[in-house]
Amino acid sequence: MAKPFLLLSAVLVLNGLVSQKAEADEFDWTDLKFAAGVGVNYTGIGASAGYTFDNTYLSASSGIMSNTDRYGELFGVGVSYQRTDLLQQLLDVSNKHALGLYAGSLGSEVTTRLRNGSTYWRADSMLGLAATYNYFFNGIEQSGFHVGFFTGYSFSDVENTSTTGVQIGYRF
After folding, report:
1. What DSSP assignment string belongs to 95-150?
2. What is the DSSP letter of 25?
3. Tell me: the pLDDT tens digits for 45-72?
4. 87 membership: H or E segment, kind and range
5. Are 100 and 122 in contact (CB under 8 A)?
6. Lowest mean per-residue pLDDT among 56-60, 79-83, 92-96
7. pLDDT given for residue 64 in this prediction
8. Is residue 28 within 8 Å of residue 22, measured between CB atoms?
């Protein structure tokens, strides 16, 4: 029951942030960015669409989290929020450094069920939250490559786990 609530909450928060921007300024579609890459900001190997404004990048992503012969492809979705002005204020660095949060599919679990003498296996995505850092080589407002890392915590009815990893992507 917590999975849908977490994802819905994250979407509502992002919707509020975008709505706040839309009220302050007219929505500029040229700030809409598409990206592809590997990592939590892409929900595995995937793509994202996001909106850039005032040192902030909001995005929604979808990707393939795993692919096995036994369980097939496992897809996931997520939302992320990144800001470049936080490190600028603390460390006096350029706007190429972004700190962020991610909510969505983060990891996978396999459950086993025994029915009528047969064993059934099933893979499901786990929902979670992650803190992210990204370095945008051309700045957050421009197209180009970025690299970063993340650390997160995912949970389900069966298990809870933490995860850490790297990410790389290209924004068009």
Report:
1. TTEEEEEEEEEEEEEEEEEEETTEEEEEEEEEEEEEEEEEEETT-TTS-EEEEEEE
2. S
3. 899 998 888 888 889 998 887 776 666 6
4. helix 85-91
5. no
6. 92-96
7. 83
8. no
Query: How many C-beta atoms surround the C-beta of residue 160 within 10 A?
Result: 13
Query: Which phi and psi angles does 55 have, rounded to 5°?
Result: 60, 20
Q: Could you tell me which CATH class the domain 2-171 is placed in?
A: mainly beta
The sign of the CA dihedral 15, 16, 17, 22 is positive
Q: Where are the domains of the chain?
A: 2-171
Q: What is the pTM of this model?
A: 0.74
* 8-state DSSP, 76: E
Give the rounded percent of residues in the chain with a pLDDT score beyond 90.
23
Query: Using the 8-state DSSP alphabet, how is residue 158 labeled?
Result: S
Q: 34: which 2 tokens?
A: 């598409």
In whole angstroms, what is the distance from residue 44 CA to residue 66 CA?
Answer: 8
- Closest to 81 in 3D by CA, of 142, 167, 17: 17
